[in-house]
Design a protein that fits this description.
The complex is a heterotrimer of chains A (about 260), B (about 290) and C (about 325). Chain A is α/β, with parallel strands linked by helices. Helices cover about 40% and strands about 25% of the residues of chain A. Chain A has 12 helices and 10 strands. The longest helix of chain A is centred in the middle third of the chain and has 20 residues. Chain B has one domain. In chain B, about 75% of the residues lie in helices and about 5% in strands. Chain C is mostly helical and about 325 residues long. Chain C folds into 2 domains: about 260 residues, ABC transporter involved in vitamin B12 uptake, BtuC (Orthogonal Bundle), CATH 1.10.3470; about 35 residues, no CATH class. Helix content of chain C is about 80%, strand content about 0%. Chain C contains 15 helices and 2 strands. Chain C is globular. Classes of the chains: A alpha/beta (about 260), B mainly alpha (about 290), C mainly alpha (about 325). At the B-C interface, helix 4, helix 9 and helix 11 of B face helix 5, helix 11 and helix 13 of C.
Chain lengths: ~260, ~290, ~325
């Protein structure tokens, strides 16, 4: 089976700093892949590289077998790749429902001309988008706050809304940048369940986070990044037992904690 | 055209222009770097410095070397009123400060028109003639400008690097919250920064008015210069303001002497726009997500 | 917009159209013409502001429109309204060229570049005297055709153009187009990831806005029957920005109110030109200190305050908090 997303020998330097060097991995359809690594390992750069926010110095990115290296994020979104952000999770200035509608731009867009002239095709698409937005809020337990201004929501709900915005674009692969950073373990479990449901609905998921327990409990496979390079790849148990990974994370106690789920 | 005498003239003019420009730009950059305020009224304070010199030196006969800094200090102290009434509402509020200070500029400039009328005046020259230095003939007045400016700039540098207050100002510019938690009294720091900034601007204005002429609208040019220099050097960067001022001063002197004033303006603006597109954080600034 | 607001709006338009009949000495019509013209600039700039960028070059583009309209009429013999159309297309072409470069820049850098750009344009108008007449400008610009040569006739032309411009901008800011623009302003990153071509949206708004203000330039040249670089300074660009800031930058009503206020104010303070400027400056300071969201925002907050007393709801306080954040 063709991988949904493939990174081939990705490299990126900033000035003299080699943030990412020769990183390769593939995300198989229907799997949940985790990308972990200690702070400063280059994870954020990797996410930015595969989501089109930053152009690689060398290497390629393939989406469904198509070379998308260097394409800007909005083109990738139209090709089915969407991501969330660690900061700026939501559109702070409008309601939760409006946030979901904005995320659904792809579904609502019938072409610039028909938008401008308010053609019936546009109007029908808008109505179905509204329904899509409401459904998404429902799935993410946000219906009760649908009319609240997103900027005023508690942190956990903002993170959930961030996922809703990404899902509204009807992606077939979603990249999540630190989706549970700053969340309590109950909230993190909720996110884990949500993402499992997302995968079961047929969307491939890639998660980047620090939280070992979360990653180990959610992902089918894990890629460990350190010093901008791949350190290990495999199932969570195997990877977390790898002595090199343990060493990279300062001390063996961490790996022992997460051996069993 | 390119003979030695003209070249020397260009160099001396360039140096005196640079001195004035660096002073103006430093004041502007202090206000932006420390208080995040875009001082659209900067030119107006330069203009007031010019009028103050006109009175201290031109009317009251205070000795020139004292009159210049005295005029600048006077304007800086009086400007504290503006600080308390206007500036302090807009610290750390960049966009609102732009519009509000634009309003202050209007108020100051047109008050000056009401007080002094629109006509241009000239400040009586302090020194005329040439002095011979190492076989070269240099105009005394430009040399004086350079000397005064150098003294002020060196004092400023010493202040910023050797005193506690200077250190406090640099800390506040880098990170306001951390500076506050370190016990730095930000309102005192702001006020000192304000005084220094206006002092330098008024000083520059006094020197500028001496070289060119004095009118309520003379501040427009220094304001433009401040923008250009600060963009060149990097907004909020003090060494950048110094570098930018020197580059602009010498470039303008060269271009204006050989190609005329309008070519000089076009080139300066063109270079600035190109720089903003290619390297918006200036020569010595830091890229802070300046480009999408 | 509620039905009440629509009816009120329609009444205002009818009243405005009837002005030449009501106003006997022609003074109201003069002021009305200038308000209508200024509204074109203010509302077109508003479109740019809604994408998250403040342009200080707007008067420069107005100047391009004015000179092109004048020159195509007087030198090439193009009839009205063709010359006006040329005056709209010319600045739009320039912004199509440089927009993709400029609009990548972050907020404060964009402001500075457009400030410089405005100055370069003004210098160009001044220096290119073979084309523009230099500092003296071009005199004897004929009236735009027999229909619009009377005071009332031109007023209706200006009013009609202004309403058309407002309608175009309004169309861009409502419905899904408005949603797209608001997404871009609120968070470019998120908008990109939703599939919105952010740079293209900003460029489109910029091109449209500069085209519209080019029309104001052409119309003004016809109105004053001359054109000179003095009208296209950074002061004029700043006026357009101030119209938006005073009225409110979050809603199209803002520039409409702002343009009216800024045109009427000098009339109210007639006589003392310098005092006018001083007072205006002080008003700017006060407005930015007390109600940075402009008149529209102040009105909204007042409405919320009143309704909160009757409802005591959570939504309003959230709304107030967010709107105060700007």
């Amino acid at each position: 089976m063709k991988p949904v997303l493939e990174a081939l020998q990705l490299a990126r330097s900033f000035g003299g700093v080699r943030a990412v060097t020769g990183l390769s991995f593939a995300v198989q359809p229907g799997e949940i892949l985790g990308l972990i690594g200690p702070n400063g390992a280059g994870k954020t750069t990797v996410v930015n590289l595969i989501s089109g926010m930053v152009k690689p110095s060398s290497g390629r990115v393939l989406l469904d077998g198509v070379d998308v290296t260097g394409l800007p994020p909005h083109r990738l979104a139209w090709m089915g790749l969407v991501r969330t952000f660690q900061s700026t999770t939501v559109f702070g200035g409008c309601t939760v429902l409006e946030n979901a509608r904005r995320g659904a731009f792809r579904s609502a867009h019938s072409g610039w001309l028909s938008e401008l002239f308010g053609m019936p095709k546009a109007r029908r698409l808008h109505e179905s988008t509204d329904r899509l937005a409401m459904e998404l809020l429902d799935q993410l337990a946000l219906t009760d706050v649908a009319d609240q201004i997103a900027g005023g929501l508690p942190y956990g709900k903002q993170k959930a809304l961030g996922i809703a915005i990404a899902l509204a674009a009807r992606p077939h692969i979603i990249l999540l940048d630190e989706p549970v950073a700053g969340l309590s373990s109950e909230e993190a479990s909720l996110v884990r369940d949500m993402l499992t449901k997302v995968r079961n609905a047929g969307i491939t998921v890639m998660v980047i986070d620090h939280n070992m327990r979360f990653i180990a409990g959610l992902c089918d496979r894990v890629v460990v990044v350190h010093h901008g390079q791949e350190l290990a790849q495999g199932s969570p148990e195997v990877v977390l037992a790898d002595p090199r990974v343990v060493e990279a994370y300062l001390g063996g106690s961490h790996a022992q904690q997460y051996q069993g789920r | 055209m390119f003979n030695a005498a003209t070249i020397w003239q260009v160099v001396v003019n360039g140096a005196s222009l640079s001195a004035i420009y660096v002073l103006v730009a430093l004041g502007f950059t202090l206000l932006f770097g420390i208080m995040r305020v875009v001082n659209f009224a900067h030119g107006a304070f330069a203009m007031l410095g010019g009028y103050a010199l006109y009175y201290f030196w031109g009317r009251f006969g205070v000795p020139y070397v004292i009159a210049v800094p005295l005029a600048a200090a006077f304007v800086a102290l009086v400007a504290l009123i503006a600080e308390g009434l206007v500036f302090r509402w807009f610290y750390q509020r960049m966009f609102e400060s732009m519009i509000a200070l634009l309003g202050l500029n209007l108020a100051l400039v047109y008050s000056a028109v009401m007080i002094w009328d629109v006509s241009e005046r000239s400040i009586p020259p302090a020194f005329s003639g040439l002095i011979e230095v190492g076989g070269l003939l240099l105009p005394k007045d430009r040399l004086m400008v350079i000397c005064i400016a150098v003294v002020v700039l060196v004092s400023f540098w010493v202040f910023m690097t050797r005193t506690r207050q200077g250190l406090a100002m640099r800390a506040t510019a880098q990170d306001l919250e951390i500076a506050e938690t370190q016990g730095i009294n930000t309102s005192v720091t702001y006020r000192i920064a304000f005084l220094i900034a206006i002092f330098m601007t008024a000083l520059a204005g006094a020197l500028y008015a001496q070289i060119y002429s004095l009118s309520p609208f003379m501040g427009d040019r220094p304001l433009m210069v401040a923008f250009v220099v600060v963009i060149l050097g990097g907004m909020g960067s003090i060494p950048g303001a110094a570098l930018g001022g020197v580059i602009l001063g010498f470039t303008e002197s060269f271009l204006a002497t050989f190609y005329g004033a309008s070519v000089s303006s076009f080139v300066s603006f063109g270079v600035v726009i190109a720089l903003l597109i290619v390297r918006p954080w200036g020569l010595l600034g830091t890229p802070d997500g300046a480009r999408a | 917009m509620t039905l009440v607001m629509r009816i009120a709006g329609a009444c205002l338009v009818v009243l405005a159209a009837a002005l030449p009949f009501i106003d006997k000495d022609g003074f109201g019509v003069t002021v009305g013409t200038i308000i209508a013209l200024n509204m074109i600039g203010a509302t077109s700039l508003h479109l740019i502001i809604r994408t998250g960028h403040v342009s200080l070059a707007h008067a420069g583009f107005m100047g391009i429109g004015g000179y092109v309209a004048t020159l195509t009429l007087m030198r090439l013999g193009w009839p009205f309204p063709l010359n006006l159309l040329a005056g709209a297309i010319a600045p739009a072409c320039l912004s199509l060229l440089i927009g993709p470069l400029l609009l990548r820049l972050q907020g404060k850098y964009f402001v500075l570049v457009t400030f410089m750009l405005g100055e370069i344009l003004r210098l160009a108008f001044l220096q290119w005297s073979s084309l523009t007449g230099g500092a003296n400008g071009i005199f004897g610009v004929p009236a735009p055709g027999p229909m619009f040569s009377s005071q009332a006739g031109f007023y209706w032309l200006a009013l009609g153009s202004s309403l058309l411009c407002i309608a175009i901008v309004a169309r861009m800011l409502t419905g899904n187009m408005g949603r797209i623009i608001d997404s871009v302003r609120d968070s470019e990153r998120l908008a990109q990831c939703a599939g919105i071509p952010v740079l293209q949206v900003k460029v489109a708004a910029f091109v449209l806005a500069t085209g519209l203000v080019g029309i104001q330039g052409g119309l003004t040249a016809h109105y004053l029957q001359y054109i000179d670089p003095g009208a296209f300074t950074s002061v004029q660009s700043l006026s357009f920005v101030v119209m938006n800031v005073i009225g409110g930058m979050r809603s199209l009503f803002g520039p409409i109110i702002g343009a009216t206020f800024m045109t009427i104010l000098p009339e109210l303070l007639r006589g003392y030109v310098e005092m006018q400027h001083v007072i205006f400056g002080l008003i700017l300071i006060a407005v930015m200190a007390a109600m940075p969201g402009g008149v529209v925002d102040a009105v909204n907050r007042a409405r919320q305050f009143l309704s909160r007393r009757t409802r005591g709801g959570n939504l309003d306080s959230n709304l107030a908090r967010v709107e105060a954040r700007q």
